[in-house]
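Lab notebook, entry 370. We have the chain sequence and a SMILES string for flavin-adenine dinucleotide, and the next step in the workflow is to get a structural model of the bound complex before anyone spends time on docking refinements. Request logged below.

Task: model protein plus flavin-adenine dinucleotide, output structure tokens.
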Amino acid sequence: MDNFDADLVVIGAGVIGLAVARAAALKGRDVIVVESEDAIAVHTSSRNSEVIHAGLYYPTGSNKARFCVTGRRQLYAYLDAHGIAYNNCGKLVVAHEDEEAGLGDILARARANDVEELRLISGDEARAIEPALHPGLTAAIHSPVSGIFDSHGYFLALQGELEDKGGMIAFGTPVKAGRLTAEGVELDCGGAAPTRINARTVINAAGHNSIDLARRIDGPHQHTLPEPRYVKGSYFSVLGKTPFSRLIYPMPGRASLGLHLTVDLAGRGKLGPDAEWLPEEARPPFDYRVDPSRAEHFYASARRYWPGLKDGALTPDYAGVRPKIVGKGEPSGDFMFDVVDSRLVNLIGIESPGLTSSLAIADHVTSLLD
Ligand SMILES: Cc1cc2nc3c(=O)[nH]c(=O)nc-3n(C[C@H](O)[C@H](O)[C@H](O)COP(=O)(O)OP(=O)(O)OC[C@H]3O[C@@H](n4cnc5c(N)ncnc54)[C@H](O)[C@@H]3O)c2cc1C
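Result returned:
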């Protein structure tokens, strides 16, 4: 087995690993990203809504609230600076009369979270800008700072900056196990050429695998890690032209933001994700296929705000899986930074709004290393 020394090793080339690796490389660290797949962003980072979230929903003061709001501002600036496509189309969270109290709670929390430009509007005002909305809707929050973007252009830009600063990504290199040493962390990597890496610092950004992998790195942190839980989210694409130009969100549930309608940069509409709790023992790799029989509840949920959705308009599209650290019925968990010390940081439960928050998370993680 080959054996070599490294400064900073990031495990995982999803958006979080890429953003952290780029930020560390810009600060002068020698960075290697080890990725078990043969390409960047194969899992959750490519299986989401590509929405730039405003930061409406998350408990004030939580990591999700702070990093979403800061990360969103950073992300728009980054997309501008790198010429990456986005559409700052805005979003409506829509409510029927019996949901208005909940809508008020979201608005109060969003303002406390420092989200800009929010407006509470009536159902009629909402229909004036989105005429296809349900006539029974009585109120909405308009969030102009929400948007969608070319996430793959963003990942490539992060990778490009990392490589410009001398960093590299080792593909086909799954980390199997490791142990803390006096100097750092020893990692055992598999793949075509099994390798042992002696790293001064390791950032575990392995997404779905980050908890199980943290448990396989011998050290005092192993006994304080949460149990991983997973919630699948399926999407259906909408055939034909979508009558909306903004993102349309119903009231959120506990495990998800509700079955929303997004319009991508090419103008294609899609509905989802729904929330399907996987059995407690479920572990990666996951089955990302979409069960066509779920269409029935997609039609029913979407018609609560889009009555004109035609029968036969929905086609199974793709699915992603949320890495959770709480069980069904519990309050949504927060992003977790399991800082062992300057040798090892495990990033856990980085579900939505992880994409939006990625630059802020990267700044936070690299500041922990300072
Ligand atoms: C259905 C859904 C919708 C979402 N919508 C949005 C949204 O609209 N906006 C938003 O801001 N956020 C959204 N999110 C959240 C966002 O997608 C995630 O927070 C983000 O993609 C997480 O990135 P990651 O890098 O942590 O994980 P991943 O993208 O899964 O990357 C982890 C990487 O680690 C690699 N890896 C795993 N184990 C090992 C190992 N042992 N050795 C080496 N490599 C390993 C994997 O191959 C993978 O490439 C959504 C999430 C889901 C599931």
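Notes for the group: The two ends are 32 Å apart (CA to CA). Worth checking against the assay data. The chain has eight helices and 21 strands.
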